[in-house]
What we know:
The structure holds 2 protein chains of 2 kinds.
Chain A: E1 5-7, E2 10-14, E3 19-24, E4 30-38, E5 45-50, E6 56-59, E7 62-67, E8 72-77, E9 86-94, E10 101-102, E11 106-111
Parallel strand pairs in A: 2-11
Antiparallel strand pairs in A: 1-3, 3-8, 4-5, 4-9, 6-7, 7-8, 9-10, 9-11
Chain B: E1 4-7, E2 10-13, E3 19-25, E4 32-38, E5 45-51, E6 57-58, E7 67-73, E8 76-81, E9 90-97, E10 106-108, E11 112-116
Parallel strand pairs in B: 2-11
Antiparallel strand pairs in B: 1-3, 3-8, 4-5, 4-9, 5-6, 7-8, 9-10, 9-11
Amino acid sequence: ILNVEQSPQSLHVQEGDSTNFTCSFPSSNFYALHWYRWETAKSPEALFVMTLNGDEKKKGRISATLNTKEGYSYLYIKGSQPEDSATYLCAFINNSGYALNFGKGTSLLVTP
Amino acid sequence: GAVVSQHPSWVICKSGTSVKIECRSLDFQATTMFWYRQFPKQSLMLMATSNEGSKATYEQGVEKDKFLINHASLTLSTLTVTSAHPEDSSFYICSAPKPGSNNYGYTFGSGTRLTVV
């Protein structure tokens, strides 16, 4: 079992606020880091797949960075909207396998 | 594209009975399907990996005789929880690699909430 930690566990922000979450993972044998957005009763939606140290990816108001040497990734949401409310999961894959090792997620609530 | 349909979305069963969960790949062929479960306030944990036409591979601590996995076709994988007990109550979700993904992109079902009473 590979230890993937996410913080904070939950977050409550006002509409328009910008926010960020952290995912930490083992820095050895890195292969890929995934971010998912997961709404209740729906399938997790892939946001980013990150593979290279220093990667920065952006999708609309959401962006992510990756540091494989120190084993962390940040997810940023700029100008949060109520529809951003969801659980954000990160998952790590190492060189020796193909399975996703998930963190517990960060639950985001954005209120108007 | 690359949609996985999972059914049922929730199920309540009596202790001692068996429950079958289905995952179908609707618009692609899934040679591999991953099965995860999530207990409250915990992370999704891999239970087993099913491969079409061969035996499933189970993670350490997962009883293969209790969680029967069948992957008889390229579009259907099933997980049967046999002789279910209240401690099997959990959230189960399947996932398959997206076709053509070199960086292990995955698509997920919507999950099944199992409650054993």
